[in-house]
Every structure is written in C-alpha cells, then in structure tokens.
Amino acid sequence: EVLLLENLRFHAEEEKNDPAFAARLAELGELYVNDAFGTAPRAHASTEAVASHFAVRAAGFLMEKELDFLSRLIENPARPFTAVLGGAKISGKIEVIRNLAGKVDRLLIGGGMCGTFLRARGLEIGDSLVEEDRIDTARELLAAVPEGKLLLPVDALLADAEGPGAATRTATIGNVSKPWRIVDIGPETTKRFAAEIESSRTVFWNGPMGVFEMEPYAGGTRALAAALARATERGAVTVVGGGDSVRALKEAGFASRVSHVSTGGGASLEFVEGKELPGVVALSDR
User: Fold this and answer.
1) What is the pLDDT of residues 44-103, one digit of tens each?
2) 10 Å Cβ neighbour count for 272?
3) Which residues contact 90 (CB under 8 A, 6 or more apart)?
4) pLDDT at site 130
C-alpha cells in the first residue's frame, strides 16, 4: 500500500516538531526513508521527530548522493580544491567563507558580494552594491585568509544605471566612480577565475558572478559555468549548489556536464558551513 499525504506544513504541528503529530505519522509506515535533502535543515515533525519511532531511518538515493558529494568537499577533497562564491550579499555566506577558508586552496569571490570586500580594501567602487554594516566583517575575513588564497575581481563590467538599457564599459577595480556600478566580472577576472577552476581537482560553486538575469551581464557567470564543465571533463569533482547558480548553470546548458547539482541550495550551504542538519542527524543509515 502506498499513501501520498498532502503538504504537511498545512498542519501547524509539522513546523512545531510536535511529538504527538509525529507519532500519528509513524503509524502509517514500518520504516523511515528521507529523500528530501532540501528540507534537512528543518527540525520538523516529518524530518526529525517522526524518525525516532523507527529502528531503520534511511537516506533515500538522492539524499545519499547529496551527502556523498558534499561530505567529500569537507572531509577529503582531491586537491587543488577551489570554491567559487558569488551572489548579491556577503551576509548569508560569512560562515561558509570562514569554514571553507581553512579547507580550500583557492577562494574566488565575485557577484554583488565582492563589493563589500573591495570597499573593505579601501577601493573606490562607485554605486556598486555594498553592505555597509558588513565592511568590518569583510575586513576581518580578508585578514584571516592567508595571502594569495582569496581572489577578488581585478576588473569588472560596469553599468551607469539599473536595467538592461544602461550604458556599459569595462574598467579595472579601483577606477569605478559614480554613477557606475559593477554588474559582472571583467574579462581579465574571468580569465583568471576560469584558469583556477580548470586547474582544480575539486570545485564548489555557489552564486553567480554578476546580474546574470540580464543578458548583457551574464557573460562572466556563463564563462565560469563552461570552465566548470571543462574541469569535469578532465576528471575534477564539481559541485554546484544554490538556486541562482543552479539556474545559471541550466540556462547556460551545462547542468548535465558537472559532477553534481545540489537540489537544496540552503541545505548545501549549511552543510558546507559545518552545521548539523536535523534531517540528516535523525538518520541511522546515511
């Protein structure tokens, strides 16, 4: 017999990790299999409390694959190991950077979040995105990472306004005045980052290099996606996690040409941060 239940979050007891609700769920089966990696960070009734009612608490095939690839990144990566981090803000990736800094051989920073690091280095970046309340944190991270391990853009594609109709130009970092703002990594940075990726044996990528949703600003992200595919063809283990980077990879046509595309963006980041995921801890067989 197979029962398909409705979305359990329609029930308030699910997100409260309610023991009585979990017990009722447990009455419906004889063993427990969790194959939803994206929900693993949640201590909910169906991901944590219900598991305690079963002697066998197994990972499904997808969960097993996610844990296999992500564990390899943290525990025993083939070297050189390169992490590529992008996206809009540094605030959501501070712990990821801290945890990866001691594990990777190269840490490549692009996307909107690089603006906060560049400002922390005292560079002029015009109207580029900066998290003013995270500049000190960025400065601390830069000081903590060994010289030469963390690479920031050396040039960038600039736009003089938001939107696809803006004027654009390429400039070296430090020569960016208002109203110009960084919308993508530049050609020299793209070349350097791609070379680092292609010379690596393990690569983790999370976050686009620019405003990739707009065609004129997608070049850097697509170029790194292509470099990731080439690295995979040469035998590297390549893992992509995070909604925007996965979307960019798919749009560029390279999703089938990397080792693993994570189904849980937030879950993969928390795992790489070193956090224990309740939905994983609850399992007896991973």
Assistant:
1) 999 999 999 999 999 999 999 999 999 999 899 999 999 999 988 888 888 899 999 999
2) 23
3) 97, 113, 116, 117, 131, 134, 137, 138
4) 94
Pairing type for strands 260-261 and 237-240 reads parallel
Cα separations in angstroms, 83 against 13, 96, 97, 207: 39, 10, 9, 11
- Average confidence score pLDDT of the chain: 94
The pTM for the full model equals 0.92
Q: Which two tokens stand for residue 186?
A: 């530049």
Beta-strand relationship, 81-85 and 106-109: parallel
Of the candidates 65, 36, 82, 19, which has an alpha carbon nearest to the alpha carbon of residue 224?
A: 82
Indicate the burial class of 74 (C-beta count within 10 angstroms; 0-12, 13-18, 19 or more). Answer: middle
Question: CA–CA separation, 279 vs 267, rounded Å?
Answer: 10
Identify the CATH class of 77-265: alpha beta
Residue 252 C-beta-side C-alpha neighbours within 13 Å: 25
